[in-house]
Amino acid sequence: MKYSWEGTYCEEPSWEGDPEGLCILHSLVPEKDKKAFDQAFKDKMAREDYDFREVFFPGPISFIGHKFNKGVNFRGAKFFGWANFREAEFADLADFSSAKFAQTAIFEKARFSGQALFKNTEITGEADFRGATFDGHTVFHQINKERGISKAPPLTAFFQYLSFGPWGLLRFQDLSLDQASFLGTDLRRCEFHNVHWHSYRGRQVVYDEMLLREKGESSLVGFAPAFEHRLDYEGLCVSIEELYRYLKLNHEKEGDQKQAGDFHYGEMEMHRWANPWRRWFPFSWSNLYWALSGYGERPLRAFGWLLGLIGGMGLALSYLGLKTHPGMGTGFRPAVVYLLQQATLIRPDWAEPVTLGGQMIGAMSRLLIPAQLALFLLALHSRLGRRR
């Protein structure tokens, strides 16, 4: 009787083993009578009373395949063991706000026909939503949020191969998706607001890429619908490339151009990996684009190559020999000036190479230096433009 919410009171009788006089369902005693709890839980389910606010589940609990024909309320519920909602169907509102899952929360192949709320929810183990279907608006907000000085556990979640009805939409807000997998999911049906992604070498990445990098393809094929064939390495790269493409489009639409640039980099990276030729041949266009400018997203890298190209060709030209007018120097600096004039289509009449190798370097400078300069300007524009 001590629990009340918005004028509704707990109608279960007090359990004699609880020091605060709470009922067997709400008692926080870890060793509470399992038989009495199971009976009270069974009776509650039999009368389709799905109000589980603040209920403390002392051990594993199973709702496998259960059809909730009306709204369910698990607000503030505490699951001391794993909670299994595999293939459960939620016909109306499913509220898991402020619930605490001490172990794995399994919603594999569950169906949410109405709104679903996971606000301020804490999931210590894995959150498994693989193959789930969403027909309504679902919100994941401040999952595993740090409270006070206590450090929140990282959220490990699998939102793989999700399905959406005509009005299905997922909203992720104010949380970390550092360890969340979205393989096979159409991210055009997802919204991301103030989300923290995994950080890798100065860019934001989806966790699927890290799983593929660090653990190989076996870490990403643990589940797939029956109609999905097992993806090989190249197929996984294509699927992750699609994730990045949709994330890029989402963030461009929201005006978050900084993260859109990171996801463009990831999209191009997965495109390069998806083909053995592009991945392994050093002079493939994809490899050159990555190495010389970071897919048009790394101006410092492009600028470094530009300086190195001018300096290297200048050294080679000064070594091979440069003929100048009497009284003029023939070292490194005149060679650099000569190359820059060549690159800008100015034909210098004060100097000319004296060997065939020098003539070849002069000719290549007309192509290579402008091309690298263009990559640098493209990367600089992309980087600065995305910070407006």
How does this model look, in words?
- By secondary structure, the protein is of the alpha/beta class.
- The chain has 3 domains: 50-196, Pectate Lyase C-like (3 Solenoid), CATH 2.160.20; 198-280, no CATH class; 290-385, Helix Hairpins (Orthogonal Bundle), CATH 1.10.287.
- The protein has 9 helices and 27 strands.
- A 6-stranded parallel β-sheet has the order 4-8-12-16-19-22, with no helix packed on it. Strands 6-10-14-18-21-23 form a 6-stranded parallel β-sheet, with no helix packed on it.
- Strand 1 and strand 2 form a beta hairpin.
- Helix 7 (299-320) packs across helix 8 (332-343), helix 7 (299-320) packs antiparallel against helix 9 (356-385) and helix 8 packs across helix 9 (356-385).
- The longest helix has 30 residues, at 356-385.
- The model has no long low-confidence stretch (mean pLDDT 88).
Please outline the helices and strands.
Layout: E1 4-5, E2 8-9, H1 34-46, E3 56-57, E4 61-62, E5 67-68, E6 72-73, E7 78-79, E8 83-84, E9 89-90, E10 94-95, E11 100-101, E12 105-106, E13 111-112, E14 116-119, E15 122-123, E16 126-128, E17 133-134, E18 137-141, E19 156-158, E20 163-164, E21 169-176, E22 179-181, E23 190-196, E24 198-200, E25 203-205, H2 207-215, H3 233-254, H4 257-273, H5 276-280, H6 285-293, H7 299-320, E26 322-324, H8 332-343, E27 351-353, H9 356-385
Shape: rod-shaped
What does the average pLDDT come to?
88
Number of strands: 27
Structural class: alpha/beta
Helical residue percent band: 25-40%
Radius of gyration (CA) equals 30 Å
**Regions with little confidence, pLDDT below 50 for 5+ residues:** none
Name the beta content range: 15-25%
